[in-house]
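cron nightly-structures :: item 1 of 1
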Amino acid sequence: MAIKVRMLLSSVVVLSMMWLVGCSGHYHCGTTFGGTCSTGTTTTTSPSTANAFAYVVDENGTMDGYALNTTAATFGAVSTYTAPTISPNRGGVGVVVAQGKYLYAVLEDVQQIYGWSIDSSGNLTALTGFPLSLPSLSGISALTYNQDVVITNPAGTLLFISEAVNEQILVYQISSTGALTAATGSPFSTGLIPLSPQNMGMDGLGRFLYVSQVSSTHSGTYVVGFAVSSTGATAGELTLIPGTPFNIPLWEMQGDPSGNYLVGISGKVQFLYGSDDNSLYVYSINQTTGALTATAGSPTSTVYAPFNIAMQPTSVNGEYIYSFSINDADTATNPIEAYKLDPTTGALSLVTGSPFNASTPTAFGEFDQSGNYLFIYSGVSPSYSLGVLNVASSGALTETLPTASLVTGGYFAASDVP
């Protein structure tokens, strides 16, 4: 998952995309949980014993790299890293890691996908044939809230891009070399469904794709489901799930690792929608058809109205979902909530100690592939930072390292060491 928002297009979009602790609409650091601004550091980190890397789109025209080294207790710019050149941009529309070794950045400004391989030191090498020109990326909705418009399937063999304005979904097969090939039937038209596709989510086994209808108020109305072919030359081909569209109010959604459940939020928050929906929704996934059915007890009440969610991608110690939120006055973020998902019943239970007060205010988080680290994005123009939270086996969160300063705001993706 990339940073889950469209960057720097209007004041409303800026308010939604950042954690925004500015005062009275001014884009500067104001009240925070600790009473001070978290501006990050300029630490450089050796990649030789790194635990994970993070890559951030720099609007000035580079792909910047950062490394987490828990042994040295550092998180910062990679000391041996030379940032690849990309087109100057507005932060991109999505960055993803596939197969644990390929990085893709989608830039609307030039309608291109950039692709690199990642080595064990965190260095990026451009893949052959990239940047790849897109047929109609300008169709990505430019004046609303993009949180999951660029995603991969769990195996990292398919890349999906939604285009709200053009009412279509682009699907690419990702080969073992990182090359992209348009899937059979791509781009898939969604206008007759009808669907102006926005945020996307998949079940944990990569069999079904779920897509929300675009909204100018960050609110879910209905969801369209597709069965995704995994067979040879037709891999990535989309087929409508019977009974779709589903009349469920999901704005953002993510599948649990077991593949049994889809967890989502309506996205309805006071400062954008006019009222809060303090809920997490859980739907069981029919293992044959992909149809969605609300689980017993769903929705589960949350302390705060979720603005964004992150599902831990592994289930070694359980299955955990994290909710990020912004207060009703849009002046600060709330503590992060953590819930454990029962993979048998779909029931959610509050993790002990939740909500968690991370020292860095954030409304956006993304896991590395191991699920051990939750990367958090923070800031308002011109000061941005990226931090890391440790995830305990109990689901509890702790922040032990200073954040890393970013050059500009931009989408990011976290990667384990290949």
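cron nightly-structures :: done
The first strand starts at residue 44 and ends at 45.
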